[in-house]
Amino acid sequence: MGSKGQLLVISGPSGAGKGTVCKALIEKSPIWISTSCTTRKPREGEVEGVNYFFIERDEFLNRIDKEDFLEYAEVYGNFYGTPKSEVLKMLEEGKDVILEIDIQGALKIKSSYPKGIFIFIMPPSMEELRNRITNRGSETPESLKTRMECAYDEISFASKYDYAVVNDKVEDAVKKIESIIVAEKCRVFKIKDELLGRF
Amino acid sequence: MGSKGQLLVISGPSGAGKGTVCKALIEKSPIWISTSCTTRKPREGEVEGVNYFFIERDEFLNRIDKEDFLEYAEVYGNFYGTPKSEVLKMLEEGKDVILEIDIQGALKIKSSYPKGIFIFIMPPSMEELRNRITNRGSETPESLKTRMECAYDEISFASKYDYAVVNDKVEDAVKKIESIIVAEKCRVFKIKDELLGRF
């Protein structure tokens, strides 16, 4: 029996660049990224199975009943959830899996799947976070203020995670996550039985 | 100020190749390797400050009294010890430090310096360990048997370590240790105060 895959749960405040980091990571490494389900309608340009699996409300509720979500939440009347069976199947096959997920979702997964590796992507500084959000050009002064306050609150959750990776340069952040994956596979408490079984 | 260095304590059964791995690691990475003190006489070819610091018994006993060893042991009438002040100074300056040390010594350091990162170098298999020890050509059948039994006992101590690295290929083992060093610098419980202090 080979060792099973590892579940990486990656969060961070909006603007920390977790999407960019995850995208660069899956391009370089043999990691499978889980796609969430949602009941909201696709936006222009969104692709089924890439951005989300777009499913009907009834199906979503049905899958909640069958406990087929690692976590789910209702936001502004729409459901969002992480499908369980597919993630567990990949892990069972020995594949490493990434979930890029918000902090509330990550904390729910931490209680249901504590074996996961919880990584928090940090902006290098609040100034840099402000620059990144401002450069998107879609914020009013008021919404920028709200987002910065929200990010500040979110950063305090970093202490609930196993690792914090400062996203100064994307390639450096990716290398750190790759190192975390390698190191976690050497952790004695995870591999003890398999390793000592050889001798 | 700034993050301090990390202490890597590297052990493993004789024949696992920990010496080769440590040598390759310090050639590649900016890590300082601690040199032990001993009261035994230098052997042919051994260099003061490289293999050991060769010191007199009185000086060794004096330094024990001054608690200047992270750990020490007496083996066949000779003392061996890891100098404390130099290691702590390097760590304080932010340098990562390796101690290549036997299992008993490592376990002593674990109780006196639990912040250390304890890495156990494993042979890929008992067969391979036997080959490596045999290929040195210096063993009689009897001493080989003793060494293999001793190695077998030692391997059971792997469970006391944080990480186990199988030394199949030296360069792979070195990469894994480098990954462990990088990952440990991202561990939230170590960097929380410094990291959250920025925000």
From TrEMBL, chains A, B:
Catalytic activity: GMP + ATP = GDP + ADP
Gene3D superfamilies for this protein: Guanylate Kinase phosphate binding domain (3.30.63.10), P-loop containing nucleotide triphosphate hydrolases (3.40.50.300)
Record flagged with keyword Ubl conjugation: no
Family matches, as SUPFAM superfamilies: P-loop containing nucleoside triphosphate hydrolases
Location(s), subcellular: Cytoplasm
Enzyme Commission code(s) on record: 2.7.4.8
InterPro entries: GK/Ca_channel_bsu, Guanylate_kin-like_dom, Guanylate_kinase, Guanylate_kinase_CS, P-loop_NTPase
EC class name: transferase
Keywords: ATP-binding, Cytoplasm, Kinase, Nucleotide-binding, Transferase
Residues reported to bind ATP: 12-19
Pfam families in the cross-refs: Guanylate_kin (PF00625)
CDD domains for this protein: GMPK
A GO term from the CC aspect: cytosol
Any coiled-coil regions, as ranges: none
Major subcellular site: cytoplasm
Residue ranges constituting the Guanylate kinase-like domain according to the UniProt record: 5-182
HAMAP family: Guanylate_kinase
Family: Belongs to the guanylate kinase family.
Free-text function comment from the UniProt entry: Essential for recycling GMP and indirectly, cGMP.
Listed name of the protein: Guanylate kinase
